[in-house]
Amino acid sequence: MTLAWLSLLPATDQLWLFMAAVAVLNATPGVDLLLTITRTLQGGQRAGVAAALGISAGCIVHALAAAFGLAALLALHPQAFALIQWMGAGFLLWLGLGQLRRAWRSSADGGAPAVGGRAMSFGADFRGGLLTNVLNPKVALFFLAFLPQFVPAAAAHKTASFVLLGSVFVLQGTLFLLVTVALVARLRRWQTSAVARRVLGGLSGLLFIALAWRLLSGRVTPA
Fold first, then answer.
1. Exposed (0-12), middle (13-18) or buried (19+): which is 22, by Cβ within 10 Å?
2. Average pLDDT, the chain
3. Which of 36, 42, 104, 184 is 20 to 30 A from 149 (CA-CA)?
4. Do 36 and 52 form a contact (C-beta atoms < 8 A)?
């Protein structure tokens, strides 16, 4: 049984290359990493963990979609691809404007104790992470383009191999985000200045808005 599972994985050198590439991709600044850091700074470790788990759940959705051909179907239908891009950009814009609004209210109130306004529930942070990831069609195309390169040509069950590699990707990404949450949570203890908290909220809002603009202005409709 063990040997059967091993046959679904690439050779050892290719597997290490895969894991190294995943590590680099996880460390590359993007929407998922920004959301995890922002929610940890604003809501503490619990909020950061919830956002990270939501992002990981989104990656599971993308990995399964790519494994079973849904991502390929998305790539073949430009209208559907564009629709998801607009939805993703809209969600990022909503996040950004929300951050700016809460930072402004904090400033108007003379320095509220938290940039994020009222505390969000674990479920709300989880959904935020999930939607941020799922509504980014470029993640779907990434899984479609990246994972097949490491599926062994001799694997008898290509879909199972795809799902297994996707699981390794998600597990590694989840661990990276959780470590990030633990490190950022320590930094949060030093975040005592009300002005610093308001500036952080404002900058986070601007970054989310910039990412929404980048998603739309840099979009390439699949052929």
1. buried
2. 75
3. 36
4. yes
Lowest mean pLDDT across 70-84, 129-143, 179-193: 70-84
CA distance 183 to 98: 25
Percent of the chain past pLDDT 70, that is, above it, reads: 62
Q: What is the mean pLDDT of residues 20-41?
A: 85
Across the range 155-180, mean pLDDT stands at: 86
Helices and strands of the chain, counted as H and E runs: 10, 0
pTM for the whole structure:
0.70
